[in-house]
Fold:
Amino acid sequence: MADPMARSQTRGWGPTALLIGGLAVVGLALLIVPGWIVPAPTPAPGPASGSPHASVSFPPSAYRSIDWQVAGLGAGSDGASVLGFTLAGERLVAIGSRDNQPLAWWSDDGGSTWTAAPSMTAPAPAPVEGAVALPLSLAASGSRVAVAGVWLDPKTRGSLGPMVWVSPDGSSWQAYDLSATMPDVVLGSLTGTADGFYAAGWLSASGAPGWWQSFEGIVWGPVDVTGLVGLSMTPPAVLWTPDLILAASGSGGPASARPAVWAADQGLEFAQVFTDQETWGSIRALAQADYGFVAAGQVQDNPGDTATGHLAVWISATGRDWQRLAVDTPVGTRATAVAANTAGALVIGTSTAAQTAEAWFLPGGAGVPSVVRLPFGARSVVALPDRFVVLGVCPPEDACTGPMVAIGRPSQAAEAPTPTLPPR
Structure:
């Protein structure tokens, strides 16, 4: 049988490996900056989803499961936490911190081995004595990487304004203080484009959402975005493609949101193209592959009650017409990240009852899922042509010394072994 992934393997690690998950990034912002939840008026009903059973057709896949290998990130990461990672050209770049000191690592072999970058120092002087520069989000535009951060007041832990780190390749970094020119802005979630970056964030004083743009990641300015009305949470999940920009969240107030998708051309004039009228919940991550688009999030038995939620997946061939897959998932679960390649889509799910994560592999993007429990708390996932790479941290009781990496290669076996932590 011909390898269904052969065509992707000849193209290098390129745009089909896009990931806009980053839920751990904005979750961190939720802990430290008030006003992350933005109440909004309930909009008029959007397009109905029809049946929860998908009518979108994706090509079949010969793959059925994922064969996982788990290892420590290494490279001087002992005692560090991780924020997330991104694909910059053909290089994986990861961001974390230790003792309030931001850290970076990079890998040129698909996540197997990592190298520590020089220290990511904060700009000097700080806005006030003792302020901490905390990274929130990262994205890549080609090989260039930008990390959005926030200055935290040492007394209140509130925002003192934004700052950024920028690298031409993920191995050397320069910090820039933006607190003097845009003190009320939080650059919450970054998205890389072909010629720069977007930041979907908010104003720290009012919680009002906003978008900003930068071509090099250093100088940022506000951009007009229309049509993103009724978001239950901000920032939304955002996915950029050369032809289409997608944003996803819930539509309506936080206690009555329904999963929804907005689409725009490069002019950032969004229109709500999908609302799942059959359920409550929200979409938290978006991904693209050759066959189409995959979204992941949570649906809720009771509106606004995440304890009654279930991990959910939606698919679209065009980005505008969406259908929810009939995936049977346990109560108390939600999706935090998704990535897709030719083999299929991988959704990272978490549970309110566990500190580990589950990896849901959907062959071909819409097939019957194969599910394994990863032995650590996953933060984000990136799809490469021949593998998925997951970054995270171990549960405290396992006494792990640093970040963990899981590399998953699609397999034609019906079941794959359950991954375990490496011996200490």
